[in-house]
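Side project, low priority. Logging it here so it doesn't get lost.
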Amino acid sequence: MIIQYKTVKVSGVNIFYRQAENMKKPTILLLHGFPSSSHMFRNLIRELADEYNIIAPDYPGFGNSDQLPMNEFEYTFDNLANVINNFVEEIKLDKYSIYVHDYGAPVGFRLAVQYPERIQAIITQNGNAYEEGLQPAWDPIRAYWQHPTEENKEKLRSLLTLDFTKYQYVNGTRNPTVISPDSWNIDQFVLDRPGNKEIQLALFYDYQNNLKQYAIWQQYFKTYQPPTLVAWGKNDIFFGPQGALAFQKDIKDVGVHLLNTGHFPLEEDLDISVSLMKQFLAERVIY
């Protein structure tokens, strides 16, 4: 299966996306996290391409999509979700499953709440929807929410450095030497673009509004009961295993698997992730 690299203009923004086009098969929309892009799915797409139509966009300000200045684009999770929803409509996706990782959760769950009839299934890898999933690593960001001073803002800049970007990839892994440095170097290239760090700091501040959405997302889970696969890196410094287990409170058809790895399970546990996804989707999603 050929993977194509495309760009489409939506909401005034050029959105880059990867597609393994297989229109006769069920669609999976892959929604990336911080500080990554659709690049995080480069290996997963190849593994799923023969059986699914795979779409993986980059958000505005991430990867190969446009990075509009902050005075021209409001970098909030509401707005990222609006752009991705418009993207979905532009490329005419009527029904799809969502894979969410990290920032992909507040984007994807907003789409699910707005258009529940489109969502066939959910796969979450460290895509949080419960307060109990938030680890102490959030404390400096919480301090900025409570007291949005320049001092607290400046403290968060350390989260945008190469050292921390690499740390997100290797921390919690069994064998850091199997994690390709290409991942954190590509992410850091984008973070180091002029103006990008201010965008990321704006999203750090806006993340507090995702917590206010948790009850809405949980009500969606209870009401619509989307089949859900939770394949979670249990050693994640940001989103702990309690966040994975919490999905069991609201969804009946949910499988929770705690993988012995870190924030980016696809980097170390691609094979087991693919196996879990294929089995889960084959039993629940019919085109």
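Brief comment: The chain has a mean pLDDT of 97.
Revisit when time allows.
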